[in-house]
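Thread: quick sanity check before group meeting

JM: Hey all, I'm pulling together slides for Thursday and realized we never actually wrote out the predicted structure for the chain we discussed last week. Dropping the sequence here so it's in one place. If anyone has concerns about the input, flag it before I start.
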Amino acid sequence: MGEQLIFEELKLRLISTIYQPLIEEFKHVSIEHGDGLGYDILAYNESAEKIYVEVKTTTAKYPAASFSKNEISFANQFDENYVLFLVHNLNTDYNSFEYIEIHGFSNVKEQLSFQPTNYKLRLKPDNSENNQ
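JM (edit): ok, ran it. Output follows.
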C-alpha cells in the first residue's frame, strides 16, 4: 500500500508542471516485474530527471526497514537518481501516512544506520565430507 501511495504522490508532483506528459512513463516495476529489480517505481522528478524509487513501509510510528543485497547494489549503482521513501505511521483505515524522503543513496548511507540482521549459513567446504 505504501508503494501505491508514493506512486500517486509522485504523479501529483508533476500534474501542474510542463512535465505532466512524463506521468505516462511512470512504472510500478515491483508490480509489473516483481521485487527483483532493486527498486519499486520508475518515475520522473520535477526537473524531468528519471528517478528510481524504493519504498519501505511500516505501520509503526517510526520508520525501520530491511534492504536486500540486490537493493543496496542497485542503489549504489544509481546513486544520484535513487530516491528512498520511508513510509511510516500508515493507517489503512484512514489512508493516512507519514514519510521521509531521501535523495541519493550516498545520503541514505549518511542519514541511516545499517545493521546486519540476517546471516546465511552454509557448510564449509572442508566439513561437507565429514557430515555425509
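AS: nice. The mean pLDDT is 92. The CA atoms of residues 12 and 23 lie 9 Å apart.
JM: adding both to the slides.
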